[in-house]
Amino acid sequence: MRAKPGIKPQDVLILLKIVCWKDRAWQSVELARELGISPAEVSMALERARSVGFLDAEKRRVMKAPLIEFLLHAVKYVFPAEPGPLVRGIPTSHSAPPLAKRIVSDANDQYVWPHGEGEVRGQEIVPLYETAPDAARRDSKLYELLALIDALRVGRARERNIAAQEIEERLSELVLENK
Q1: Which of 80, 165, 176 is nearest to 125 (CA)?
Q2: pLDDT digits (tens, 9 = 90+) for 101-135
Q3: SS3 122
Q4: DSSP state letters, 34-64
Q5: Which residue from 131, 162, 138 is spatially nearest to 148, judged by alpha carbons?
């Protein structure tokens, strides 16, 4: 019996981008271009996501319940992150929208993805996938979802709880009802 391929960080990035497009028709080549991932890798990612139950059989619709379950309960274990050294970058986790409006933190308690065009100095958080910061700069919905996921990966209990609520609400709005 062959083992199922596991999920990779770029698969989550691709699924989140599809979620942000809601019910819009899309092409794999668009995903590749928007996310800075090769078309071949997008194709493999879609197949992995289908095989673990995050996409329907046609690899077109995100399966809301399994994706939410994975994000809320497994992402911090499968793709852990720890705050690193101080760097200049793009705010993430509690330092980025939408959590930055709800959680007060001082200038010494900022988390950022390292980025040459970043304007905030904070502790480095390695992004879920290397192209995520650039993709997030082009899509505010994607940016907020990625920042919320980082709050699950590195946040304290209060931040994780608020992030989990936000992710559930956003995915419920963006993903058509399914399994």
Answers
A1: 80
A2: 888 777 778 999 999 999 999 999 999 999 999 99
A3: strand
A4: HHT--HHHHHHHHHHHHHTTSB-TTS-SB-H
A5: 162
